Amino acid sequence: MADSFYQVVFTGEFTEGMTRKETLARLAELLRKEPAELRALFHGPEAVIIARTSLAMAQKYVTSLNQTGALCAIRERETQPIESPPPSAPLPSEPAEPRAAAAETEPSTPAVATDLPAEPAAPPEPVAAAEPPMVPTAPAPAAQKPKRPSPRTITPLPGPSDITLSPLLCANAGGVPGGMSTNRRDWATLNFTDLKLLAAFKSTENLDEIKLLLFPRSNRRPLLIEGNTIAFAQFPGVADGKLFATFRKFLIMIYRSNPRIVLDHATAQFMKGAPPPQFAKDPVILISDLHRAYTAAPEQS
């Protein structure tokens, strides 16, 4: 019976604001390759970065690779089991696990047949017969780019506030591979793949004020971070100069790192260009309403 395995492929798209040259340099540093070896990846979509891995490892690879600016996707394949898969070297950021490197089992560019069949022996003299008519073959369908799933959104569900949902405050935040540093002793880092819900809001009319709520799966209480305390320059392709534009790119980067994350509806509209949502009351009220709506929503398939 065939076993399932997963590939990580380059979609042909780049993070908004990142140039091809910057992305190539970051990708070469992550994969420990020379830029010239990876330049062929940018000729089109469906270039294989990782040819064979588990789903869990493929998700980790996509998170790391997306932060270089080269947007990647996971593709499921089937193959007959092999006796001894080739060893892999560790990722720079995760020494204990295989690093993202050009796969040895498949080329990193679209596959091209290179093994030609041996020349056949001379056929016997043909016998006079009617030649069959030529039947035109249908052209192969054009390859399609993988479609990015639409974000799942919820609207806060009003009700009583729950003090047990009081947020954990972060004085500032910076970037780490696959997530962010919260600079808390009880919660040093947060991986973007651990997030279940995200929301942003303004509590005043101050132009330099915006807040971020991050709901981890592994903790009931969310993290509350002031937008102007986030070190945006530590996240590839995010820093823009203007707070709202930079903050919007930051939210998009988190969503692309974890497409299964649920978004507050008003926050999703802000990510598309709308003004940031306003909420001047105690944030515990908003958190309780979001938690209530998330709990009441049907599970993702």
- Oligomeric status: single chain
> Helical percent range?
10-25%
**Strand order, biggest sheet?**
4-12-9-10-11-5
Distance between the termini: 26 Å
Large-scale geometry = globular
- Main sheet, how many strands, which sense, barrel? 6 strands, mixed
User: Kindly state the mean pLDDT as a whole number?
Assistant: 77
Describe, in plain words, how this protein is organized in 3D.
With about 300 residues, the chain is an alpha/beta fold. It has 2 domains: about 1-110, 2-Layer Sandwich (Ribosomal Protein L30, Chain: A); about 155-295, no CATH class. It is about 20% helix and about 20% strand. It is built from 6 helices and 12 strands. A 6-stranded mixed beta sheet has the order 4-12-9-10-11-5. Strands 2-1-3 form a 3-stranded antiparallel beta sheet. A hairpin with a 6-residue loop joins β10 (about 210-215) and β11. The longest helix is centred in the C-terminal third of the chain and has 15 residues, at about 245-255. It is globular and about 60 Å long.
